[in-house]
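Dear support,

Our group has been running a series of protein-ligand predictions, and this particular one with acetyl coenzyme *A is the one our PI (initials K.S.) wants archived with full inputs and outputs. We had some confusion internally about which version of the output was final, so please treat the block below as the authoritative record. The input we submitted was:
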Amino acid sequence: KGCKLVGCGSAVPKLQVSNDDLAKIVETSDEWISVRTGIRNRRILSGKDSLTSLAVEAAKKALQMAEVDPDAVDLVLLCTSTPDDLFGSAPQIPKALGCKGNPLAYDITAACSGFVLGLVSAACYIRGGGFNNVLVIGADAMSRYVDWMDRGSCILFGDAAGAVLIQACESEEDGLFGFDLHSDGDGQRNLNAAIKENETDYSLGSNGAVLGFPPRPASYSCVQMNGKEVFRFAVRAVPQSIESALEKAGLTGSSIDWLLLHQANQRIIDAVATRLKFPSERVISNLENYGNTSAASIPLALDEAVRSGKVQSGHTIAAAGFGAGLTWASAIIRW
Ligand code: ACO
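Confirmed final output from the archive:
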């Protein structure tokens, strides 16, 4: 059995924050940010918008493009590291879409690699598990965990959601040719938003009472990042991973129409393309307008490229996500 991408959609919050806006809260400038990253604007969740409402909007558009009824969806994978509910936000999506039959929905937590891992997971469910229509949604609100006083990281991130519908098909129509997936827990020190140390060092008082108990509710620290190390990791690991996915697919770079990387930094995108000897006119980039939207960045850029007519039916795309964990994941797909 094969699986193919049949629809995509995206959604971004209304509030736009420019580099000049950021220069009012930290010591930075539009020139510094745009030269070092390629980013000029980002969207930030505010008011009644939630991560789930963005994800639902993106999913609705993907279903509309595919002309598939919400009732036909049998699995929803929400790739997010910034959920509305720590226990999982995904079940809210089929509820909001009005899917009948209580389809399975759960969260996948893998930061900026989440969407590619969701794609590969969807393919496994379809090929082995009898699923037919799987919604894969990448959605993140990094603004929730950014330290807005840290100019080294706050300038990078934005909030968004993007979705694709993956459908079962005959094997000759298969749209996922090869993938390559990795993690490196050692690198976590260079990029994380870890739980804050909680005081769980209880002791017994003289009257038999447990001192220091009960614990305070847990909370997470803001994004901690060593930008230079993350940059080095991405530029080294991503080209290798794409080459490995191409090899598994039995393809070479020359048969790829588009390079679609996680939109973290234009200099990372350019460096990876150069290492792969990939011409810049076939590299998809939209981070100028949205910044790094974590798990949303690949489906958001794909959706824009499809709707603008850049990516057309039958085109082959080398996609790669990379980031916190550390994790990195590449997939060769056909639109
Ligand atoms: N404005 C002005 N100056 C700044 C800013 C800013 N926003 N940020 C840092 N600087 C200063 C620093 O203080 C430093 O000053 P100094 O030389 O006086 O000490 C100088 O600029 C250089 O700082 P670096 O951190 O060395 O700058 P670098 O060229 O490495 O660029 C950047 C920083 C843009 C963060 C880059 O390292 C990068 O993009 N790395 C990848 C990060 C990334 O993609 N992270 C997300 C991964 S995805 C995920 O999973 C969440």
